[in-house]
From TrEMBL:
Xref: Pfam families: Ribosomal_S15
Family statement: Belongs to the universal ribosomal protein uS15 family.
Subunit structure: Part of the 30S ribosomal subunit. Forms a bridge to the 50S subunit in the 70S ribosome, contacting the 23S rRNA.
Function: One of the primary rRNA binding proteins, it binds directly to 16S rRNA where it helps nucleate assembly of the platform of the 30S subunit by binding and bridging several RNA helices of the 16S rRNA. Forms an intersubunit bridge (bridge B4) with the 23S rRNA of the 50S subunit in the ribosome.
Protein name as annotated: Small ribosomal subunit protein uS15
InterPro entries: Ribosomal_uS15, Ribosomal_uS15_bac-type, uS15_NS1_RNA-bd_sf
Provenance organism: Candidatus Giovannonibacteria bacterium RIFCSPHIGHO2_01_FULL_45_23
Endpoints of the signal sequence: none
Lineage, opening ranks: Bacteria, Candidatus Giovannoniibacteriota
MF term (GO), any: rRNA binding
């Protein structure tokens, strides 16, 4: 679970304008953080299938957001995946 302080920091790093809290870029960054946390949880608890299902849903949602960003603005997409350390 993301803490409020961490979430505000991620939003501040990835926002497009001053009041941006829900753009696709911000959503991808937040999902990436949650995916990283859940992945480390699943390494400790490999039989936690309920969390694994949630992880797969988050990965799918992030993939859809990334496809949208790529279609909308290729330069932002390239910058975002480089900043987050994601593969194409």
């Amino acid at each position: 679970m993301l803490k409020s302080k961490d979430k505000k920091k991620i939003v501040a790093e990835h926002r497009i304008h001053e009041k941006d809290t829900g753009s696709a870029e911000v959503q991808v960054a937040l999902l990436t953080k949650r995916i990283d946390e859940l992945t480390s949880h699943l390494k400790e608890h490999p039989k936690d299938n309920h969390s694994r299902r949630g992880l797969l849903g988050m990965v799918s949602k992030r993939k859809k957001f990334l496809k949208y960003v790529q279609k909308k603005n290729q330069a932002n997409y390239e910058k975002l995946i480089k900043k987050l350390g994601l593969r194409k």
